[in-house]
Amino acid sequence: MKKEKPPYKIVDEKCFICNKSLKREISSSDPNTIWPVYDGISFRATGNYGSTVFDPITDDGFLEILICDECIKKKSKQIKRVRNIQTKTEYKYETGTFKELGQ
């Protein structure tokens, strides 16, 4: 019986903070896909108005870093958790105000 190849390959990448080796699954060359990281988290940033290092106004690129779970635990007091709360607003031209709409 022939052993089938998995639809992905495992690659070694490094933690941004401690340089620990992290395993990651990659199954295509599409850079926009977020691939799973074992024992860590992947972060992406598309730029920031205040950055003098990376703010690709004319480019749709992004920066990506991996941080291992151990570093997340060590730095947990410095991490701010933000819930993804989505609200919609409507601008009232006549009054120059925003009105929050239902979720």
Describe the structure.
The chain is elongated, with a radius of gyration of 20 Å. The strands form three sheets. The protein has a two-stranded antiparallel sheet. The longest helix has 6 residues, at 69-74. With 103 residues, it is mostly beta strands. It is built from one helix and six strands. The mean pLDDT is 80. A hairpin with a 4-residue loop joins strand 5 (88-92) and strand 6. It has one helix at residues 69-74, and strands spanning 9-14, 21-26, 40-45, 63-68, 88-92, 97-101.
Offer a few descriptive terms.
single chain, 103 residues, mainly beta, two-stranded antiparallel sheet, two-stranded antiparallel ribbon, 1 helix, 6% helix
Biggest β-sheet: strands ordered side by side in the sheet? 1-2
Q: Main sheet? A: 2 strands, antiparallel
Give the termini separation: 54 Å
Outline, from the CA principal axes?
A: elongated
Radius of gyration (CA) equals 20 Å
Question: Strand share of the residues?
Answer: 25-35%
Measured as a percent range, the helix fraction is under 10%
The overall average pLDDT, rounded, is 80
Uncertain segments: none
How many extended strands? 6
What series of H and E elements makes up the topology? Answer: EEEEHEE
- Please identify the structural class as seen in this structure: mainly beta
Number of helices: 1
